[in-house]
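Backbones bend. We report:
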Amino acid sequence: MKANLDAWQQALEHCRQLIPPGTRVTVACSGGADSLALLLFLNHNKDALGIALEAVHIDHDFRPSSAQEGEYVARICKELGLPFHLVKLREERADWKQSASEEWARNARYEVYGRFIGPGRMVATAHTLSDQAETILLRMARGTGLHGLAGIPAKSRGVVRPLLGVTRAQTEEYCRAMGREWVTDESNHTDQYARNRVRRQVIPGLETVNPQAQQALAALAGQMRELDEYFREKAGILLNQAKIPGGYRAEVLKEADLPILKEAVRQIISQYRDPNRELVERACTAVKNGGGVQLTAHDLLEVRQNKLSVWDPNRAPLPVFFLKKEELGEKTTYQVGEYLVSLEVLNCEKTLKDVFVHKKDYIFLADYAKIPCDLVLRTRQPGDHYCHPHRKQTKSLKKWDNELGLTPAQRLRPLLAGKEHQVVWLWNEGTAKEFLPDEQTGTVLVISQEKKG
C-alpha cells in the first residue's frame, strides 16, 4: 500500500509541475477506471492545486453501452458539482462509421480536446504507466526510432497526462478506495485490437521474467526522452544557426553530426506531416546531395542553390502590407490569402467603458498612442514573439502555436507586427497585452477580422 501511496503522491507533484495554478482543467473521462480515478484525484486536490475542474465525455457510439457510459459520467460530475460536457461523434462527424479505425477515433478525440485548450485552459487525459509500457512495446514491434521510444509525453499541445507514474491496477484500487464503481469497455476483453493483445498476452509474459516489467519499460521511455530532448535541443541550435529567410543553409546542416541532422530534419518535416524514418533519411540525403522530397500533395522539401526550403510550387506567395502609422485612418480592408483584416482609427470622445460594452471587444482594439512605429500586416516569420492579452508571459509565436496545437495551414493566419518581430495583434487571439487600450486612451486602432467562406 505504501508504494501506491507514493505513486499518488508523485502524481500530485507531477500535477504541480504540469498545471499552473489558475488553470481550468477539462478531464477527458470515459468512465473507465483510469479516467474516473483521474477525475476523482484532481477533484480531491483541486484546491491544493489551485485549479478549476470540469469533464468532457466523448461518445464514439461504437458499442451499445456507450450512451449509458456518458450518463454515468454525467451523474458522477453532478454529484461532485463539476461542469460536464457530452460530445457525440456520430452526430458531429459526417465521416463517422461503425467500423472506424483506432486512428480515426484518436484523431476525433484530439479534435474535441482542442475546443477546451487555450490560454489558461488544458485537457487532462488518463494515460497511465501501463499505457506507457504498452505503447513502447507496440512501437518497438512496428519499428520506431529514438523519438518513438520516448513514449507518451507528460505534456503536449495543451494536453497533460498526470498519471504516467501510476499503473492501471493502481487506478482501480484508487476508485475502490473512493467507493466508486467504473464502467468496463467490453472490447477490452477481446484480442481484436493490437493494444489488447499486448495488454493481455505480452505484458503478463514479461512479468513472469520481471514483476516490475511495466515500470522498467516506463523507465526506459524516460531515459529515451532525456536523450531525445538532448538531440532536440542540439537540433534547435543547428536550425537557428542555419536559418535564413525562407529556409535553411544546407552547407551548415551538412556539417552537423548525423543524429543531430536527422532530428533537425524531423523537426522540419513534422510541421507538415508525420516524419517517419524513411522520409527523414531521404530528406537527409537531399540535404547532403541536393534534390527534393515530396512531403504532402502540396508541400515539397527541396535543396536548391544550397538552400533547404519547404514550399508549394503551385501556391502563390501571400501578400505583405507595409502600413505607415500616420496614414492609418478610415476603415480599410486587406486580404491575406483567405483572411480579411480591416483597420480603422477612431477618436474616443467617451471612455472606452462607455463605448464598448463587451469586454471581449477590447482584444480587437489597440491604443494608437502605444504603437511606437509603422506596422506590417503579414503571416508568421521566425523570431516573432507575442504576449496574449490574457497572459503575462511573452513567448515566441512558434511556442504559442505549438501550445495551441495549430496545423501548418492554420499557422499562416495574419498578424500585425512592429519592429524586431514584436507582434501587435494576432488573428483570433487579439491585441498583445502591452498595446491594449485603457481608461486614458484617446485614440484606438480598431481591428476586425473575417475569413472568406
About this structure: The CA atoms of residues 271 and 408 lie 6 Å apart. The chain has three domains: 2-220, 245-311, 321-451. The longest helix spans residues 213-242.
